[in-house]
Specification:
There is one protein chain. This protein has two domains: 78 residues; 218 residues, no CATH class. 67% of the residues lie in helices and 5% in strands. It contains 13 helices and four strands. It has a four-stranded antiparallel beta sheet. A hairpin with a 6-residue loop joins strand 2 and strand 3.
């Protein structure tokens, strides 16, 4: 068999595998709830991008910009399907499911309590089941983010978020510039501004500026403007190219874009403050995205 024939045979095999995966995606869309169909639609898009990458790009008339986007989408898909990353995501999912199986308080009961019960003790008890799992899952998600970033750097990106932002069509410099307009041009000015914001929020110097710790740290606030998660979080993640499902929690954003986000739990007035501690807008945005998904899984599972 000549080299050219071998290449065509290999291409046919690759396309066959992709075709099978596309069929599986279509099947999943038909057999899953509507709220999950977007996830499979994105998977299908990633597979189609992968197929286009395998074909002759020049004869397909793909521009340099399109080729860059296709390659980034393919690389994101490849990262997400790596064994260590997919295994970790599966482990996180099993951790959440296992936790609630043992807790004796299922989603429907918890949802009913939070939506209908006027008993503060019942509502507090329902949320107390969430906090230990939030800590455990957030640690795993931090590992997941680190793995994704490590793989993204192998492809020449600063982090995984930069790849996602490229695909969404947003220039990372745009977010950085926007934040600097509010927080200053230098790292020192940025740190000073964040420290002042933390003071205004009521976060002491002793409070660790780390999402995994802050998830378990609540404090009372007298005046809060609470927004529905669907609208509020899109103000942040919409600029980063993310779309999240509704979650039965309330979120409060500070007036500093990307500087800090407050997630406010309905019962008890507990508030979780997530503050960008390192000055990297992309890292903070993506970490916050994953932490929010952790909370989302906890609440919706």
């Amino acid at each position: 068999m000549t080299r050219k024939l071998r290449e065509y045979a290999e291409l046919e095999n690759q396309l066959l595998v992709i075709d099978e995966r596309l069929a599986e995606c279509s099947y999943n869309v038909m057999t899953n709830l509507p709220c999950q169909s977007k996830q499979y639609a994105r998977s299908k898009l990633a597979i189609l991008m992968e197929m286009m990458l395998l074909l002759d790009e020049e004869s397909a008339g793909i521009s340099d910009r399109q080729r860059q986007l296709i390659q980034a989408q393919y690389q994101v898909s490849a990262i997400e399907h790596q064994d260590n990353i997919s295994d970790l995501k599966e482990e996180i999912n099993e951790c959440v499911c296992s936790y609630w199986r043992k807790s004796g308080l299922g989603f429907s009961e918890r949802h009913s309590i939070l939506c209908e019960s006027t008993c503060e003790a019942e509502r507090r008890d329902a949320w107390e089941h969430v906090y230990p799992l939030a800590n455990e899952v957030s640690t795993k998600y931090k590992t997941l983010v680190e793995l994704r970033n490590e793989n993204a750097r192998k492809h020449g990106y600063v982090n995984f978020s930069a790849m996602k932002m490229l695909i969404s069509g947003m220039c990372p410099d745009g977010a950085t510039k926007l934040c600097r307009e509010y927080l200053g041009d230098t790292e020192e000015e940025y740190t000073v501004a964040l420290t002042e914001k933390a003071r205004l929020l009521g976060v002491t110097k002793e409070s660790p500026w780390n999402t995994s710790y802050l998830l378990s740290t609540g404090f009372e606030r007298e005046h809060r403007t609470q927004l529905d998660i669907e609208n509020a979080i899109d103000l942040v993640f919409g600029k980063l190219g993310f779309q999240l499902r509704s979650m039965p929690i309330e979120i409060e954003l500070t007036d500093v874009p990307y500087g800090a986000v407050c997630i406010s739990f309905r019962p008890g007035g507990k508030t979780v403050v997530l503050i960008n501690q390192c000055g990297s807008i992309e890292d903070f945005g993506y970490t916050l995205h994953e932490v929010t998904h952790a909370l989302q899984n906890i609440i919706i599972v």
